[in-house]
Every structure is written in structure tokens, then in C-alpha cells.
Amino acid sequence: MGVLAIRLQGLKKELLWDGENMRFTNIGDNEKLGFRLQNEFTVVNGDPKWNNKDTVPVSARQFAEELVKHNYREGWKLPEMPV
After folding, report:
1. What is the dihedral of CA 34, 40, 43, 49, to 10 degrees?
2. Rounded to 5 degrees, what angle do the CA atoms 27, 53, 37 make?
């Protein structure tokens, strides 16, 4: 849950969790999340300049659902638990 909270903090709101259905109940269909890929700061002749590179905004609801119910690549699986 901590990882989810950090990844979804860009929504800037308290998230409501439905444990039985394993989903957030208050993320709207039209809410978007973007992420900072690069954050460069330089000073040119005494003038500060920012060169930020961000991702294209994605659907917050779809992003949260993928984090909760992650689909692993073919061929990957968790080891069997001892009995």
C-alpha cells in the first residue's frame, strides 16, 4: 500500500481503498497522472533555467489497477512456498 500511495501521490488527495474488490473507489475516469523523467537545472548568465522532461499523462485509474493486479511477463513466476 505504501508503494501505491507514493506512485499515486500526484493525485493530491486521500485515496479510498475497497479491500474486498482490491481497488480504489475514488479515482475518476478522467483523472491523469504524469511523471518526471528528467529534472535539469542550470544558470545561464545569472538566469536560472529548468529543462524538465515529463511523460505523457496516463489514466490514473488504469495505472492504479495495473499496480494492484500486475501481469508478469511470460516465463516469470514466484517460487513455490514450502509446505
Report:
1. -20
2. 65
Task: Calculate mean pLDDT across residues 26-43.
Answer: 91
> Beta-carbon neighbour count of residue 60 at 10 Å?
22
Closest CA to 24 of 40, 45, 4, 49: 4
Give yes or no for a contact between 17 and 1, defined as CB atoms under 8 angstroms apart.
Answer: yes
Question: What is the per-residue pLDDT for 5?
Answer: 85
Largest CA distance in the chain: 67
Please answer whether residues 27 and 13 qualify as being in contact, where contact means their C-beta atoms are separated by less than 8 angstroms. no
